[in-house]
Each structure stands twice: as C-alpha cells, then as structure tokens.
Amino acid sequence: MTAVAEPGRRTVRVGRVSWVVHRRELVVVGALVAVVVGVGAFALTQGEYRIPLDKLLAAFTGTGSESVLRIVLEWRLPRVVIAVVGGIALGLSGAIFQSITRNPLGSPDIIGFNSGAFTGALIVTLVVGGNYAATVSGALIGGLATALVVYLLAWSRGVQGFRLIVIGIAISAVLNAFNDYLQLRADLNAAIAAASWGMGSLADLGWQDVVPVTIAVAVLVPLLALLSRRLRMLEFGDDIASALGIPVERTRLLLLVIGVALTATVTAVAGPIIFVALAAPQLARRLTKSAGITLVPSAAMGAALLLVSDVVAQRIIAPAALPVGAVTVTLGGIYLIALLITQAGKH
C-alpha cells in the first residue's frame, strides 16, 4: 500500500487499485460522524424515563439493570440505528439522482419515486392485504415501476436531466392523488394508520424494521461503489462520458435502480421521508467545497439530518411527539425556497 500526497488530497494505492482521499472531505465526514454519535447518545438518554450517561454506558456493557437494558437496547437503539442507516440510504439516493440529472432538484422526493414506493406499499396494505415482507416488496415494486414510467416518458434520443425532473413532478402529482383516493376508500382504521405512516415516522420501529434497511444498504452500497467512477463521469455530460468509454444509458439505468431501491426500502419501513435526499448531497457539497456530488459525505450528511430531525420531532413538543416527516417537510420547504432564490439569483 502506498500513498501519494498532493495539495489538499492524498492518492492511496493498494496494488492496482487506487482512490483519491480529499483532506477536507475527511474532516467534514469526521465532523458529521461526531454529530451522529453525539446526537445518537443524547437520543438514547431522553424520553419519559431519562437515563444518565453512566447507566447508558452500563447498558452497552451489559452491566445495567434489566429495565435500563430493555429501554436502551430494545426500544430506543433500533430507532437511532434506523435513523442513521435510513439517512445513509436517502443521502446516497439523492446523490445518485442529482448526479444523473446534474440538477440540485434531482431527488427522489421531487421526481416522484418516493410517491411511487408509497403507492406500492398502500396497494399491498389497503387493497391486496399482506404481511411486512409483502409491504416492503410492494414499496420496491412501486418505486421501480414509477422509475420505469418516468424513464420511458423522459426518453427522447436519450434522457435529459431537466426533462426527467419535469416528468417526474407530473407523475408525482398523479400518484399523490391516487394515494389519497386509496386512503379515502379504505377502512377508517386502516386509512388513519396509512395517513399517519404516510407522514414518515420512526416511532414504534424495532430490530425487525432495522434488518431490511440494513441489508439493502449492505448490498446496494458496494454496487454503487463499483459504479462510482461512471457516476462521476456522467456529471460531465453524456457526450464526454460516452467519449471516455462509459455505456451511458445502461449505467444511468443501473444507477436509477440502485437509487430507487435505496429510497423504496426506507419508505416501506418508515413511510415517505422528504428533504433528506434533496438536501444532503448539496449541503455536503458546500461543506466539502467539492466540484461535484460526493457519495461518502452525502451519506454522512443524510444520517446526521435524519437523526437530528427525529430527535427534534421527539422533543419539540414533549411529552408528545411529531412524525419525523413533519420536521423534514418543514425544513425541506425552507431549503427549497432558499435553493430557488439562489438559483434565480444566478440567472
């Protein structure tokens, strides 16, 4: 293993494999990891039964009381873990779509893939009827079907990013109307549960909910890593990427499937959570001062945003709690207005 230092970055080589490590990115990712650890520890101590730090540490060493072990390890820790892993998935999904479209509005929230995943889950739960695995599968199928429709409608001698976004917004509007129709036609109790879930919530989630999201991230992240170089090339435009030997449309389709799978898995477990995929890549880009979208900082930013939003949702009107989606949609609205003002100022 050798390392070649350059101003502001370090090229690391292991045999024939090499990658560039930017020092500023390392600092930003390290700071975001510290935020996640700190906020996560705070979340584990808060609630109706507050747990001092020494008892929290005792719970992780297995020396705490049975009640503390149950509260920390069985009730609160799964929520923290799913916020972190789900935030990573959403951050990476946003990074994929913003790189593909070369547009800061290119996010599964805006393009409608979240809505499609929610539609698939609603059809399974309210119409067909099915267990947890069927709901997850329905969300994945719904998200992929929506992506396929948007992709085909956006096709015109290739797929242009702006066209993909505009068509995605239109499809999202149609799906949101259909989702409302499904809930209005459903049994009252089921409709109330679906509406609550549709706001995006991490409440009452356990280790059985952590597993599918963790598996999805564990499988999809290595695949994304293999395609990361192609993803960077796509940011330069289709012509340049094609000239560099990148199979543009095939690569775009593979990346689209990975991005949809990441966001659909989170949607199946927690409902549609907006803003995180939209903002994480752009905030990470501004902090790292990178020329393009970066995957690892986007993932770290996504984890920090979702975890912090969930803690705010739990504590802002304590002892009552809000769905995390209520917090992220508020932050997302503010962010989107600021983004549009900034873009208008540039033009």
Number of helices: 15
- How far apart the termini lie comes to 47 Å
User: What structural category do the secondary elements indicate?
Assistant: mainly alpha
Instruction: Give the overall silhouette.
Output: globular
Beta-strand content bin = under 5%
CATH class, anyone?
Mainly Alpha
Radius of gyration: 21 Å
Q: How many distinct domains?
A: 1
CATH topology: ABC transporter involved in vitamin B12 uptake, BtuC
- Number of DSSP strands? 3
Helix content: over 70%
Q: Which spans have pLDDT < 50 for at least 5 consecutive residues?
A: 1-6
> Could you say what the CATH architecture is?
Orthogonal Bundle
| CATH level-four homologous superfamily name | ABC transporter involved in vitamin B12 uptake, BtuC
Strand order of the largest sheet: 1-2-3
SSE arrangement, N to C: EEEHHHHHHHHHHHHHHH
Major β-sheet profile: 3 strands, antiparallel
Overall pLDDT score:
85
Write the layout of secondary structure elements.
Layout: E1 2-6, E2 9-14, E3 17-22, H1 23-45, H2 53-61, H3 66-101, H4 108-111, H5 113-128, H6 132-154, H7 161-185, H8 188-198, H9 207-226, H10 228-234, H11 238-243, H12 248-270, H13 276-288, H14 295-315, H15 324-346
Antiparallel strand pairs: 1-2, 2-3
Helix pairs in contact: 1-3, 1-14, 2-3, 3-9, 3-12, 3-13, 3-14, 5-6, 5-7, 5-8, 5-12, 6-7, 6-12, 7-8, 9-12, 13-14, 14-15
GO cellular component, one term: plasma membrane
InterPro entries: ABC_BtuC-like, ABC_transptr_permease_BtuC
Keywords: Cell membrane, Membrane, Transmembrane, Transmembrane helix, Transport
